[in-house]
Amino acid sequence: MTAAAKSLGISAPALRKRIMQVRPDLIGSGFTSPNTEVSTVDGGFSLSGRTVLAAKPTDIWKARFFALKPGMGYTTEHLADQWGNSMDTVKSKAKRFKALRYVEDAERPGCYMACIVHPETKGN
Predict the structure, then answer these.
(1) Where are the alpha helices (DSSP H) in 1-124?
(2) What is the dihedral of CA 99, 101, 106, 108, to 10 degrees?
(3) For residue range 81-109, what is the model confidence (pLDDT) as tens digits?
């Protein structure tokens, strides 16, 4: 509207006022025809039980932990190397998603080592 008013050499409010005098149905309607019909759309999906956000999150950690094979344990060193992050970062993110567990070392009974698992893995 501003560009149109400028090309006519008048102010935008003046152009709006003139349009209201001639075609009041155009103002505020996005300049669509009053006879526009809206068709229905099919093929959608239910949002029930899903998290709906206004913007795409930048957090990639949830997908990484849920992509781990259930029933498998991974050392923090291995995942840090695979994912290109520090061991401290992987360990802290694993805690956040409840994917950090401690397992007894098979070679040293009584010694426990940290491991990363699929977040839905049962255990204390």
Answers:
(1) 2-8, 12-22, 61-66, 76-83, 87-96
(2) 140
(3) 999 999 999 999 999 999 999 999 889 99
